[in-house]
Amino acid sequence: MDLLDKFAQVEIRADARMTEADRAFCQKHQEAYQSALAFFRQLLALWQDTEQQQRYILSGPGHPDNAWSQYLTLRKFPDLDAVQIGVHLIELHRRFIRAVVSYFNTTYHLTIDADMVEDELAPALNEDGERDVSANLSTLVLRYENMVELILSRFGGRSFSEQAPYEMVMKCHRAAWKESDHTHKFVRKKSVITFLSDACGFGYSCAHGCDHWTFRYGIKDVLKGLAHFETGTFDEYPDDLGYLIPDDMVIRYDVWEFENCEKLERIKLFKNGRMDIRFTTEAYACQFVADYLGTVY
Q1: Which of the listed residues 83, 151, 205, 276 has the most CB atoms within 10 Å of its CB?
Q2: What whole-number distance in Å separates Cα of residue 248 and Cα of residue 105?
Q3: Largest CA distance in the chain
Q4: Residue closest to 207 by CA, chosen among 176, 249, 167
């Protein structure tokens, strides 16, 4: 099988795992990206030709070294030159990758790393933060099909819609188990799951002028798991659970009741770092452990 056949198969596999809405978004951005690439490549070629002409015309006795630039320098954009156009050309690849990755992250509630995609498909940043404007980039054209295939290759056979629940469960599992010795941080007794320590903190906030609670490593992932367990969706937080999750919220109370929930009943915080999660039935508590926290490391 030659290289073209392999790329053709990649496109078929990628398209087969996408919805019509996914495909429409990617195709529109593919078209816009390639249109911008063509324009700025033409602009760069014209600028370089014109700069060469200006250097030739305004050279020799009576002309300072920078005389050639007086007719090319834009008064409101003095930094615009061939180098900046070249840098922008390289940036277009990054913007295209970010647009596609952001779409899938937002649409499917994922945490795809755009830097990973960039490192695989486009040149990495130099140490000084500038991009390497090299010869091989002059003809580079990224394809969304290759991005999708690369992303899916990291999902272990799961689709975009299947990956979000998997990522959520993995985050809950990491929050519930100690990586050092593979022991659990929680216990279940009947309908209550207790995180024994380091789940929360209590102290005075100078910024807000009051005592308040904070959640420690990974616990907000557990709270998001509770919301998903209750609603079956990623966009809905029942009762006051949505108040506990945002990073900018000031949590002043230690007990949170969920009167309108079917599965979740109450969360109680303790000053020693303990957190109790009470469910409406023991069966729901067992199910949350089995489906989100895990019974083994």
Answers
A1: 151
A2: 22
A3: 93
A4: 249
Within a domain: 201 = yes
pLDDT in tens, 22-59: 999 999 999 999 999 999 999 999 999 998 899 888 88
Nearest-angstrom CA–CA distance, 286 and 297: 16
Burial class of residue 64 (count of CB atoms within 10 Å of its CB; 0-12, 13-18, 19+): exposed
Tell me the C-alpha distance between 141 and 30, whole Å: 10
Q: Is residue 257 part of a domain?
A: yes
Residues 6+ positions from 200 with CB-CB distance below 8 Å:
213, 214, 215, 216, 219, 269, 270, 273, 274, 275
Choosing from 154, 183, 200, the residue where a domain stops is 154
> Six-digit token pair at 252?
């002043």
Q: What is the mean pLDDT of residues 230-250?
A: 87
Q: How many domains does the chain have?
A: 2
Q: Which tokens go with 254?
A: 């230690």
The SS3 call for residue 265 is strand
Query: Domain residues for 12?
Result: 3-154
Last residue of one domain, picked from the residues 106, 131, 154: 154
Is 44 part of any domain?
A: yes
Q: Is residue 159 part of a domain?
A: no
Q: How remote is the C-alpha of 208 from its chain's centroid?
A: 30
Name the residue among 211, 152, 212, 128 with its Cα closest to residue 17.
152
